[in-house]
Every structure is written in C-alpha cells, then in structure tokens.
Amino acid sequence: MSITFVGLTRFSLVTQDSLTWFESTRYLTIEEAKQLVFDEGRLRLRLEIFRRYALPTYAVLTKHPQSYALIIINADLPAFCQKRLQEMIAPYPNIRIVQVRGGQSFKTPPKRLSVELAAGGRLFSYRFDDDDALPPSYIDMIRSHAETLADGTVISPINGWTIAPAPDDGIQMQNSELPCLALGLGVISSAERYLSAFQLGNHMTVHKRFPVHLISSERPLWLRTRHGYNDSVKRRPGPPPEDKPMLDASLELKKDFPFINLASLRVLHRPPVPSPAAEPRQLEPSSDAGMEAPAIGSGT
C-alpha cells in the first residue's frame, strides 16, 4: 500500500495544551504568552529563519509524490505574519497553512487534514521545528524503512548536525547522535488507527509508549540550529563542537543540505530584538531530567 508523507511544523504556536511545555510560557495565561510570542520583532526574525531552513526543506520534500507539509499557526497570529507566510508558501502547492482556533488543541486540525490527505492509505506523519532542516534524501530514506514496518512504529533518524553562532562570525558545528530527537521523528499508521507525530507525547520518552525503529547513517540526517530565540544550550552526545569560519561551515553543510548558504548562517548571528520575547524552550519531564533516550529498536 502506498504511503502519504505529511510533515508538521508549528510556527510560533500558542495553545492551552502546550503552554506548560515551555519554560517561558508555563506560568503565563494564553493572553500573556501570545503577547510574548507574537512580538513583532521576534516574528520577523522567525520568518527569516523559517525561510532559510524549514521552508527550503519542505520545498524539496514535497516534490515527491504524495508528500505534503502543514505549517500550524494560531488563527489570530498577527496579520503581517500570516500574509508573509502565505507569500512564502505560494509557489509550493503541497505546503499548506493550518490554523488552530481559540480553545482548540494544536493536535486536532493537522491530524484531520493528514487523514484526508492519506485517503485511506498508509500515513507517515513526521515533525520538525521551523528553525531546523532535513536533507533532500529524507523521504526516500524513510520510505525504504517504513514499507516493512508495522503500523504504530515510530521512526527516528538519530544522527545530524547541531549548529550555532560562534565568535568572529563563525559557526559552531557539532556532530550529534540522539535517539528520538524531534527532528524528523515520525510514525507510520493506517486507516485502522491513524496517528500524527503530535500524538506521540514527549519525544524523549516515546520509546516507553511505542515501538521505535532507529535509523543511522554515515551522513547527517537532520540539521538543528541554536540561536538567540530558541532552546537550551545543553550539550548533546558526540564529538566536541568545533568553531569554523562561516564559508567553511557552509561548504560542509551543502554536502547534505544544498539549500543552506551563507545567508542561512548569517541569520543565526542576528541578535534578538530588544523586547521581552523569547523562543519557548521545551522542557522535558522532571523524571527524565538529565537523561538521554536509550538505544532502542533497529535501523541502519
């Protein structure tokens, strides 16, 4: 049976059922969190980062047959931001914006549309953030594994690059290995019980709830960024990070992420605007604090 691929990416989404997941919003009301996250300067920078990382990823991946991307936003995201997102995705018919209205769970609208797109066939629902990227080989790689896996199996690419700004306009690069990282994490399902990637719960403990199939490669399978508006600086397992001149970093990354260029890396050096806004940092349950997910499942 053919497989439909649907990528899910939240863009500055604020909902009641996700407030407590993030350090900067966990003690706020919905109104307070939106004031923080919808700061104009923050949104304009996020749009530029999205344009350089997630958007070109989806532009490549949605060229495959039965491959789609859903960008999930609040229905009341500021109008200038919605307009710019619409302009950016306009050339790509298989990239769609999904609105979450007040009181809705962020999980419901993208699942409903994903099921419609699957049209009774098998579905692979995967996720990554608006400031990260996947390689053009991602769909073919996942397909080669998913075709032989049972429904309800989670697939996790485990190795990739983590990049961040470095002194003197350089780029810090670390080759990381981490099972069940959210980047490219997905689940295969069918009409008997369709699942979306947002139904898996905390990604670092997903192995406690679902069978997990790990995929490793000699080449990086994801690209994760760190910058002024995103998550913690927690080190991930792997060789020590290395600072490289921006041009050298760009040439290295282009081997697997051909859409990454100097402009993509420069945007990571842009400082946050002078406002109280900050990108929410996802928290992991206290019971798992300081722990990495164990090696589970199989894959090559």
From TrEMBL:
Species for this entry: Ancylobacter defluvii
Entries under InterPro entries matching the protein: Put_rhamnosyl_transferase
Region annotated Disordered, chain positions: 270-300
UniProt-recorded name of the protein: Uncharacterized protein
